[in-house]
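Weekly structure sync, notes
Attendees: PL (lead), two postdocs, one rotation student
Agenda item 3: pending single-chain targets
PL asked that the sequence for the first pending target be pasted directly into the notes so everyone works from the same version. It is reproduced below exactly as submitted, 322 residues in total.
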Amino acid sequence: MHMAIGCRLPVALFRSTVFARRKGPEHLGRSGLFPVLRMFHLDITAGQARGEVISKAVVKEIRDLSRTVKKVDLEIKDPRFTFKAGQWVDFFIPDVEVVGGFSICSAPKLLKDKRLIELAIKRSPHPPVVWIHEKCQIGSEVDVRAGGDFFYDPQPGDPPVDLLLLAGGVGINPLRSMFIHDADLAREFKENGSGYCPGSAELLYSAKTVDELLFKDDFLAAAMEPNFNCTLFSSQSMQMALYGTGACIQPGRITDLDILTTITGEKAVLHKDRLLCYICGPRAMVNSLVPALENCGVPKDKIVYEAWTNTPPKTPAAPVPN
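Predicted structure, written out during the meeting:
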């Protein structure tokens, strides 16, 4: 995937997919699962695709999503700046030497319509994160550049795929971007009869507590659309909890049985022959869910996940703006 998810520093390479397009030969990432090596964002992601545009951005809103996560809305000044759902930004802060890397949690349509992107960043000792949580305010200016090889970018005329998105903790950020983007594409196709026509989309999202389940209202609203579903999990809850207008939050983590039921159960809306799976979350979660998907018959080239490596990158760090 990527990037710094919330407070997690960006790491390594990802499997390519039918929608992970980039210039030149197809980019293939390692399929192994490795320990985390906490390195600086620019070093970790040096081999990944980056946009050519570094844009000024102004903080338009900052608010708490939970006790540990802040959401930052940035107005992008350069009209040439674009990104794909699931990508991150290099985050350059004046007078902060360390460059941050944060997943964009909004969909491309918000940038197109309002010139805004959204970030959700969990508190940590990482200097860019400290700046966001303690010094950032409305009107603050930064520079951003989009990048990353973990993304979802279907094009008009592509055959429909069914999406299965599996998120843990602040790993929800890039998957929220994908989920909303898919819903936007479905709405656009319904209204205009043109563009990409998505299949079904299913989101399974787990966090420690109900409070740490970010964007609950967004997901439950999106799940009101035909062919879009979400199931929320709280790993520290001992029993099912109700949220909002009666939505159920399941106790525990996402399990192999949840995967099996989602893909092959009586009420399953996903078609395994056109399924594309994205996973983003803690290492232990990825280690568990990748084999679960394979055991359900999902082909390896249809499972896209964050692969952390303990080998330092051999390529030089990406350039920093002057």
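Discussion points:
- The chain has a mean pLDDT of 82.
- Helices lie at 41-44, 108-114, 127-134, 172-192, 216-222, 256-264, 283-295.
Action: rotation student to compare against the earlier draft before next sync.
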